Amino acid sequence: MSDPVLSTLNLNKSFGALKATDDVSIDLKSGEIHAIIGPNGAGKSTLIQQICGGLQPDSGRVLLNGQDVSGQSTQARARAGMGRTFQISQLCMEDTVLENAVLGVMGAEHLAWRFWRPALKRPSLRDRAEAALERVGLSDDRDTRCANLSHGQRRQLEVAVALTLSPKAFVMDEPMAGLGAEGSKRLTGFLDGLRQEAPILLVEHDMDAVFALADRISVLVYGKVIATGTADEIRTNREVRDAYLGDEA
Amino acid sequence: MSSILIIEQILNGLQFGVMLFLMAAGLTLIFGVMGLINLAHGSLYMVGAFAAAAVAGVTGSFLLALVAALAAAALAGAIVEMVVIRRLYNAPHLDQVLATFALILIFSEGTRWVFGSFPLFLDIPDALSGPVTLPGGIEYPLYRLTLIGIGLAVAVGLWALIERTRLGIQIRAGENDREMIAALGVDISKLYTLVFALGAALAGLAGALVGAIQSVQVGMGEPVLILAFVVIVIGGIGSVRGAFIGALLVGLTDTLGGVFLPELFKLFMDNGAAQKSGSALASMGIYVLMGLVLIWRPTGLFGARA
Amino acid sequence: MRLNEKYFNALMIAGLLALPLWAVVADQPFTITLVTRAVILALAAVGLNIILGIGGMVSFGHAVFFGIGGYAMGILAYHAQTYTALDLGPFSTDGTKSMPVIWLVAMILSGLVAFFIGLLSLRTSGVYFIMITLAFGQMFFYFAISWAQYGGEDGLSIYVRNDFPGLNTLAPIQFYGICFTLLCVVLFLFARLQASPFGLALNAARQTPTRVETVGLNPMRLKLLAFVLSGAITGLAGALFADLNRFVSPTMFSWQLSGELIVLIIIGGVGRLMGPVIGACVFVALEHFLGELTDFWHVYLGVVLLCIVLFGRGGLIGLLTGKEGVHV
């Protein structure tokens, strides 16, 4: 069995009396999509934050590619190969689509400390950025200011910026949020092919997408993982039905 | 160095500190409730001082002068809030800074226009002039002692207002959750005007009280304003308790540093050089204090953790 | 009417060349001095524009660097004109009257101070940052006042303007030429910096620091370097300003000056290449013409400023070119 690319070991996080993350150990293996689902308030965002470095856990560790990244900053984790997308787009709204993608390449290539030649006139930055935009289908909008993009296009750009990082693992926080049926379907198809490049830890509310994509699914309830397994196993799991699917059906 | 001198200087520091508190309390309340940085707070201090000096000049009554200072500053605050500040609550900090900077220009030059460039004088009332003898045989000016008393009384009053009254509940709610107070049926714009006027009145009171020991002139407010900023950065922006502790720290540091640093330097320098370097360093003392607090706690002693 | 920003910029530069040349022909030395003043203030504000316009940091203490530049000039020239040695611990110097040396010292010193102030104040953001930079400005102001060796509150007078190899700096137009050239050089550097990878990253750090971290960059370091560069340029402007007046005093450190530098940028347009330049020209013109009409011209400046903040984003360049300003 190959070592997991990304894993958490016994993560714990409390806010006062509320246990937001309760002894969570999950892993992400090469080539897979591992979805994390759970009702609102189950602690998914808190978990993602701890994995990406926005929040420090009270105890437990995060491993990326065999390297302990617990305690490291967000930027150090990004450099170690974590490619994150946000539930609420974190894009430079005043900049163009291309500039946003170029920023990603600059991070990946350690090229931010250059002061002379314009960023957009550097083939080393521009080519990779354009390739990423091409893949998500934003090439025609490369000179559009981000503020003028539709919601769906911003979601695509989020993914494109993560692509420019050529990460070892993707961590995607609700990439389908706010997409219409059509957009969801297209992105589902895209992510389906992406897992070969790097595995994806996927937090998602869109159950159609989750069951279509995920190799494994973990169910988070009150900060605790109550089940992990394939789509079929989760579908038939009694505890999950009670705790989660039960109140939706 | 005698213990009498030390106690005198500590009292001076306290007096300076409580006056800074009157300024800082308003600033920090306004920031805590409305999220606004108000550079023109120093102008309200000046308005209070000028109103007091003008009224004292006509009536000869110090008490009436204080009432005038409170009323004029509160009124100026309320008008400014309704005409300008209200449009800035959701604006970026840069806009707030610029607009209130513009207000300083208008207030300062407007006051110069009306009253001229020469300083006015506000006399200490006869009843409060002269020294009193404290236990231990220390002679201390009664007026300054009164200032300490007034400052402490205001601090207690503010505490009671915030902890014990309906208005206080609304203020605390406003600091935590703006939508909440709207949901409670509180008229937010009235609350904001009220809080702003309250902060302005405190600044005006400070201006009038300090105006009697210094001269009343255009531009008197801004140095105090910047010190009040240092106070609330140290105390934590939005915290009235932090403003109180910060104000006393700054008042004591500034006063004691100015007296004792040159003395300290005299131990290993000749007198002239010690006086020079000591007072140069003392002028930086409170900023060093601020720097140290920031290294230790970037959001101040009582500020919300980021 | 909508102007293309490029033409507008070229027009500004042409105007800054033509006006002083006309003043020479018409024998109006005071006009040259006024324009020189505008150009130097513009230079200081271009420095501030790096952190304000690109990096989004509202520094209300930039007079610190202006003052340090001024005092660097004042102290070096004072020792040179009094033939006294300036002791700096291990080594000692006789001061200098050479502009290039003074500029270098001014820039290095202000950059160094900017590094330490930046290190402390960038631990915070928002309102804290504004208040802390303001407080540091005040600290230097009071320090200068109590620095009796160099004139304390009264400041220092330098009797003869400093030298520049091959030029007669006492001729107003030649000194103007120096200042104008430096402004052009710095504007060119600003334009390069803004478009460079560093500029792009700094610009992103203003809009969304989270994004910058997520691609593996450290927004704090980007901002700190920008702060240092910004301080050094404003320091250079301070040295020139001191040379223009042949006088330095603690007012170069005053908070009003810090405020005015921000105001210059706002009048012209935040984050715009020529924003500080047009802002400085308008400011100096207002100061001069309104100042002749009334002693209380600051009231009008206040009203104008209030209107810009409340009703007109993007400054004059925004107004003329129809582009919105950046958001800080």
Automatic annotation (TrEMBL), chain A:
GO-annotated molecular function: ATP binding; ATP hydrolysis activity
Signal peptide: none
InterPro entries reported for this sequence: AAA+_ATPase (IPR003593), ABC_AA/LPS_Transport (IPR051120), ABC_transporter-like_ATP-bd (IPR003439), BCA_ABC_TP_C (IPR032823), P-loop_NTPase (IPR027417)
EC number, as in UniProt: 3.6.3.-
Stored PANTHER family: ABC TRANSPORTER ATP-BINDING PROTEIN, CONSERVED COMPONENT OF ABC TRANSPORTER FOR NATURAL AMINO ACIDS-RELATED
Gene: lptB_4
GO annotations of cellular component type: plasma membrane
Every ABC transporter domain range: 6-247
Protein name, UniProt field: Lipopolysaccharide export system ATP-binding protein LptB
SMART domains registered for this protein in UniProt: AAA
Alphabetical keyword list: ATP-binding, Hydrolase, Nucleotide-binding, Transport
SUPFAM superfamilies in UniProt: P-loop containing nucleoside triphosphate hydrolases
Main enzyme class: hydrolase
Record flagged with keyword Transport: yes
Pfam families: ABC_tran (PF00005), BCA_ABC_TP_C (PF12399)
UniProtKB/TrEMBL annotation, chain B:
Protein name: LIV-I protein H
Gene for this chain: livH_4
Similarity field: Belongs to the binding-protein-dependent transport system permease family. LivHM subfamily.
Keywords attached to this entry: Amino-acid transport, Cell membrane, Membrane, Transmembrane, Transmembrane helix, Transport
InterPro entries named among the record's database cross-references: ABC_transp_permease, BCAA_transport_permease
Keyword Methyltransferase carried by entry: no
GO biological process, one term: amino acid transport
Taxonomic source organism: Ruegeria denitrificans
GO molecular function, one term: transmembrane transporter activity
Automatic annotation (TrEMBL), chain C:
Keyword check for Cell wall biogenesis/degradation: no
Coiled coil: none
One GO CC term on file: plasma membrane
GO molecular function: branched-chain amino acid transmembrane transporter activity
Protein name: Leucine/isoleucine/valine transporter permease subunit
Species per Swiss-Prot/TrEMBL record: Ruegeria denitrificans
Main location: membrane
This protein's UniProt keywords: Cell membrane, Membrane, Transmembrane, Transmembrane helix
Pfam families, alphabetized: BPD_transp_2 (PF02653)
Bilayer topology term: Multi-pass membrane protein
TM annotation in the entry: 36-56, 63-81, 101-120, 127-150, 170-191, 224-242, 262-286, 298-320
